[in-house]
Amino acid sequence: MKLLSTAATLLVCLAPLSASARSISFFDSAQAPIKAESFPVKGDNPLEYCSDPSGNILEIESVDLFPNPPLPGQTLTINAKGNLKDRVEEGAYVALEVKYGLITLIKQTADLCEQIKNVDLECPLEKGDMTLTKQVDLPSHIPPGRYNVHADVYTKDGKKITCLDAHNIEFKIRQ
């Protein structure tokens, strides 16, 4: 109860400041809007690179998802093409974070070579062109809402293979 009354007091004290702050202009009207740079992954997908991918070991040409957006209880087909600039050996890892809204569901580091067995690949991954087609049966009971995924992928020596984000992947209640 003390926390609620403290929060209420804080809001009452700050309300006049926020009302008056709206009328104060700190920036010239010609101020450029703040824009985040985005680096989308080509294809029909919600993916984007975390930063400029030019130095990454994996050069992704395209990723296509069908259906996009994915639907609970249906098969998701993933088609991806890319090029590895260097060989990827045992010891490579992925740092994965999955959030449901603001709630972190998964935050773990996993062995990349173990994970890629799920898509019928194995280490070492040789330098050169790669093509991947995988079908994934999605469970029919995925809680509705927005999900965000972040994956950092590194070699055993800490060189960046890739870094990907998928924002606002939304699952809706089936009707």
TrEMBL record:
Transmembrane segments: none annotated. Gene3D superfamilies: 2.60.40.770. GO terms for biological process: intracellular sterol transport. InterPro entries: Ig_E-set, ML_dom, ML_PG-PI_TP, NPC2-like. It comes from the Eukaryota. Residues 1-21 form the signal peptide. Keywords: Lipid transport, Signal, Transport. Residues 47-168 form the MD-2-related lipid-recognition domain. GO terms for molecular function: sterol binding. Belongs to the NPC2 family. Catalyzes the intermembrane transfer of phosphatidylglycerol and phosphatidylinositol. Monomer. This is Phosphatidylglycerol/phosphatidylinositol transfer protein. It comes from Aspergillus viridinutans.
